[in-house]
Amino acid sequence: MTVVDTPGTVEPAPTVPTDPATPTDRRDGRDRRRTELAEYLRACRARVSPEDVGLPPGLRRRTPGLRREEVAQLAGVGVTWYTWLEQGRPINASAQVLTAVARVLLLDATGREHLFRLAGVAVRPSAHPDPPVLDPSTQVILDALAPLPAAVSNSRFDVLAWNSAYEALFATSRPRTGDGWFNSLWCTVTSPECCNPFLNRAEQLPQMVAVLRGAYGKHVGEPLWEEYVRSLLRASAEFRELWARQEVSTRRTALKVFRHPQVGVMRLNATYLTIPGVPEAYVAVYTPDGPEDRDRVERLSTLPPGGWTAPCGHRFTGPVG
């Protein structure tokens, strides 16, 4: 028998029989997750003092932190239900009540997400998520990678930070979009083919869209993601065709061929590195494919930043990749 929580007092069923049909490995996995959930809740509760949540300190306590009944009262759930949750019993927890528990335990976004995952509940997306925050050392690392072009992007292909070599490669100036960033996928699908510096675009664009499709699966229904995809669908028939394929992929090292009006054609290997502490952000580093490419990359460092004009008159000022 399963116990379902709702705000207010909820009494659990007297027994919780084990499902004999459940495979042992799956049952062991769930049991381990419940154990982790119980230990996590107890540790979080011990870190919150009564004064932290507006309660009087009261008499001397045998253990630090809040009592179980205090957490249950402040979260609006039954004491027995919360006790069972903290004991790792097989009860169902809704997103609504887990959010209330997270609020009482003063969990930040990372702690709240961890709580939801241990409870086996999908993390409720925020309609207006906070923008990613890069540590200042990230820019120091990017600058130290020069003359190799390097940049930080997120899973929507927003370019969040870059070094001077990247700026010279893609002829970019500092951010001037609504969110303060460029978007490399948007530039790739909307720049005229005759003026796009991405020469093997036809080969690499399907991979980029497949990577976006894979990331989108984690954000279905989130307003910012939905509007972003809709804007790409409206702007590009090519994107609509690629998006309809339903191909899914992850980022992997890829050879990208670029042209620059002053340096010439460069064959560069794009390698992607994740950034701990910044979810779904990665560093893209472009390394020369051969000696001639290396010479041309080094020449980039001598060029002033700024846009360039293609023979057709189109002014290109956005990043790709």
How do the strands and helices of this protein lay out in sequence?
Blueprint: H1 24-46, H2 68-75, H3 79-86, H4 95-104, H5 109-118, H6 136-144, E1 150-153, E2 158-162, H7 164-170, E3 182-183, H8 184-190, H9 201-216, H10 223-235, H11 237-244, E4 254-260, E5 264-274, E6 282-288, H12 291-300, E7 308-309, E8 315-316
Antiparallel strand pairs: 1-2, 1-6, 2-3, 4-5, 5-6, 7-8
Helix pairs in contact: 2-3, 2-4, 4-5, 10-11
Protein name: Helix-turn-helix transcriptional regulator
Biased composition (Basic and acidic residues): 24-33
Pfam families: HTH_31, MLTR_LBD
Would you write up a description of this structure?
The protein has helices spanning 24-46, 68-75, 79-86, 95-104, 109-118, 136-144, 164-170, 184-190, 201-216, 223-235, 237-244, 291-300; strands at residues 150-153, 158-162, 182-183, 254-260, 264-274, 282-288, 308-309, 315-316. The chain is an alpha+beta fold. The chain folds into two domains: 24-118, 434 Repressor (Amino-terminal Domain) (Orthogonal Bundle); 136-316, 2-Layer Sandwich (Beta-Lactamase), CATH 3.30.450.180. It has a six-stranded antiparallel β-sheet. It has a two-stranded antiparallel sheet with strand order 7-8.
